[in-house]
Amino acid sequence: MHTIDLRSAHARAVRATVPVVARIRPPDLSRPTPCTDWDLGRLLAHMTAQHRGFAAAAAGRGGDPDVWPPRPLADDPVREYAQAAESVIAAFAEPGVLDRDLLLPEITPRPLPARLALGFHLVDYVVHGWDVARTLGLAYTLPPDVLAAALPVAEAVPTGEARLAPGAAFAPPVPDPGDDPLHRILALLGRDPAESVVPRG
């Protein structure tokens, strides 16, 4: 049986978001996104901050509250995003990282196994890469083994009333869209692959 290399899948999922983010232009930052109540600027700030937070967690500094909050976008937010993406990939590539427990206070007060944390970050960027692409009207594809690594993580995310709470990471699941693995991941995490992004009324 072929074993999926989680670090490789994660690195490729994160890097796949970089050329999509690179298509963002300043006027795009006010566009609505599939993330309810977030425009593209706020989504990009969140994505950049999460890279930094997970990188800090992999380095043993996840308990520092200062590493997690989003910052105002820099003068060159696309370049800043690309640097943050490479920083989280490098942090999880360090020897021994996947054998540790990491602090991710935004998810749970208890330490989490690093492999589980890496899976969370992987699936988050499969979804957020699609969010940015859909906002910009771009096609978005990922390698089959990246999606194969992300799908079990998406299937394991708890459902229930917590998905309805303000600030919840994911909305409730939408009806199963079929066999396409990317569409299945999106649907499990509250995105409708068939829905267009429309300006908020």
Keywords, separated by commas or semicolons:
single chain; DinB/YfiT-like; TIGR03086 family protein; 48% helix; two-stranded antiparallel sheet; metal ion binding; 2% strand; 6 helices; Four Helix Bundle (Hemerythrin (Met), subunit A); mainly alpha
Give the helix/strand layout.
Elements: H1 6-21, H2 40-58, H3 77-93, E1 101-102, E2 112-113, H4 114-136, H5 144-156, H6 181-188
Antiparallel strand pairs: 1-2
Helix pairs in contact: 1-3, 1-4, 1-5, 2-3, 2-4, 4-5, 5-6
Molecular structure report:
One of its GO terms (molecular function) is metal ion binding. InterPro entries: CHP03086, DinB/YfiT-like, Maleyloyr_isom, MDMPI_metal-binding. Residues 12-133 form the Mycothiol-dependent maleylpyruvate isomerase metal-binding domain. This is TIGR03086 family protein. This protein is mainly alpha-helical and 201 residues long. The protein has helices at 6-21, 40-58, 77-93, 114-136, 144-156, 181-188; strands at 101-102, 112-113. It has a domain at 6-142: Four Helix Bundle (Hemerythrin (Met), subunit A). The chain has a two-stranded antiparallel sheet with strand order 1-2. Helix 2 runs parallel beside helix 3.
In short:
48% of the residues lie in helices and 2% in strands. It is built from six helices and two strands.
User: Regarding quaternary structure, how should these chains be classified?
Assistant: single chain
Overall mean pLDDT stands at: 91
Distance between the termini: 50 Å
What percent of residues are in strands? under 5%
Q: Uncertain spans, ≥5 residues at pLDDT below 50?
A: none
SS-based structural class? mainly alpha
Reading the helices and strands in chain order gives HHHEEHHH
